[in-house]
Amino acid sequence: MHIFYTPDIAPNATHYMLSEEESKHAIRVLRLQPDDHIQLVDGRGGFYTARIMDAHPKKTLLAITEVKEEYGKRNHYLNIAVAPTKNIERLEWFLEKATEIGIDEISLIQCQRSERKEAKVERLDKIITSAVKQSLKAYHPQLNAMQPLSKLLSAAFDGQKFIAHCLPGEDKVSLASQLQLKGRCLILIGPEGDFTEKEIADALHNGFKPITLGDSRLRTETAALEACFEVNFLNR
Amino acid sequence: MHIFYTPDIAPNATHYMLSEEESKHAIRVLRLQPDDHIQLVDGRGGFYTARIMDAHPKKTLLAITEVKEEYGKRNHYLNIAVAPTKNIERLEWFLEKATEIGIDEISLIQCQRSERKEAKVERLDKIITSAVKQSLKAYHPQLNAMQPLSKLLSAAFDGQKFIAHCLPGEDKVSLASQLQLKGRCLILIGPEGDFTEKEIADALHNGFKPITLGDSRLRTETAALEACFEVNFLNR
Questions:
Q1: Cβ–Cβ under 8 Å, residues B36 and B131
Q2: Of the partner residues B176, B217, B236, the one whose CB lies closest to the CB of residue A214
Q3: Which residues of B touch A (CB under 8 A)?
Q4: Relative to the CA of B71, which of A116, A140, B21, B236 has its CA 20 to 30 Å away?
Q5: Average of pLDDT values for A200-215?
Q6: B101 to chain A nearest CA, in Å?
């Protein structure tokens, strides 16, 4: 069944009209007919089944036939803060894979050694939406625009805070040994070239615990995905 | 330090001559000079440090100054058999990431629902080599050319055999609950559209255990990477 992302649907809606763009896609591209059924996700846990009442190519009218709330609700909360990669496709790949595996929030950070100074959130968000639909998620991960690392470090976060870096450090422990299950966590992943010593010191000063993600030398986006994988796996 | 992949180096070599292509890269592109040091990996666990004796742009001569054997040797053996994706870039991503995270062998399989009928092993192997160098691995994963699933199913394999599929099945258990640590395993990942019922039945008949990789609906290459993550994580 075809799936549409409809963030503006009201929780108790009995009917819904697809946007002009989605209507065109449904009727002109997918050639859906009256009485065909489609699925909707609202990005906030609502998973709807709907029947096409009026197959209008600009204003497709739907009758909601079934609603599931908190569909696929996760038992923990994960925010990964990552420095966008020089090659933006690597970040895009991470966003798609993290959405499939399970993530709540992605925060883009600007670090001292970041080679990329800007990232287009709107385009990146579309990649997340596409992965949401493809993997049948009812929750849409939140993507936060790029901010300086210092700002993120000093912001309040209700949960565990970790920094994954590659500098030698006796005090680094595995994420698995530290993670409180079913809790909330924020994990920092540095840019190509890693965090600077000062950035790490600032993070520790702000209550971030240093962690390692295993012995392999991982690219930025692989480290971010490894963290995502570990948190989801441990919370199963 | 720059790293080169030199599969033909003899284990006890005191000297080594870079190939014409690698010599050109070292001298013309990287502009290395006599007495500069580089690193070599042989793909079989040998990790060498070498000094440039003659910076010849076609025949760069090296003196081996240090050898580490069984560098980063893994405590288990993992073979993932995967159907190449329609979009070959998705398979390429998997090969790069699996090499970074840790894998010994990748077997390309042709399934009934495979949309892609061929895959150029030489090109794919170059992607693995590039990831080997980037992530400082001394072992080069082996890539096996595409073969029909039936052939792989009936071939001997000394270790645990699993099939990850998406059909409902009461008997599916998590990989984590079944995996014998520090052992050898072969995991089958199906094409977009999954294995057919007959393929699954044939696999079970040949001693493969059905497993699940969690509750998320994953793309082919994400499922393959999830399996790779799990096996490496559990064997840490």
A1: no
A2: B236
A3: 72, 93, 97, 100-102, 134-136, 174, 176, 214-219, 222, 225-226, 229-230, 232-233, 236
A4: B21
A5: 95
A6: 6
Q: How far is CA A116 from CA A90, A119, A152, B133, in A?
A: 12, 8, 18, 24
Condensed to tens digits (0 to 9), the pLDDT of residues B141-168 reads 999 999 999 999 999 999 999 999 988 8
Phi/psi region, residue B154 (left: phi>0; alpha: psi -120 to 50; beta: rest), is alpha
The token pair at A219 is: 């690219």
Domains assigned to chain A: 3-68 (2.40.240.20), 77-234 (3.40.1280.10)
CA atoms of B149 and B172, how far apart (whole Å): 20
Query: Tens digits of per-residue pLDDT, B167-219?
Result: 887 788 999 999 999 999 999 999 999 999 999 999 999 999 999 998 889 99
Phi and psi at residue A233, in whole multiples of 5°? -65, -45
Model pLDDT for residues A45-84, shown as the tens digit of each residue: 999 999 999 999 999 999 999 999 999 999 999 999 999 9
CB distance B191 to B149 below 8 Å: no
Query: Choosing among B219, B229, B231, B236, which should be mutated to test the A contact, i.e. which has the most A CBs within 10 A?
Result: B229
DSSP code of A171?
A: T
Radius of gyration (Cα) for chain B, nearest Å? 20
Q: B214, A232: Cβ pair inside 8 Å? A: yes
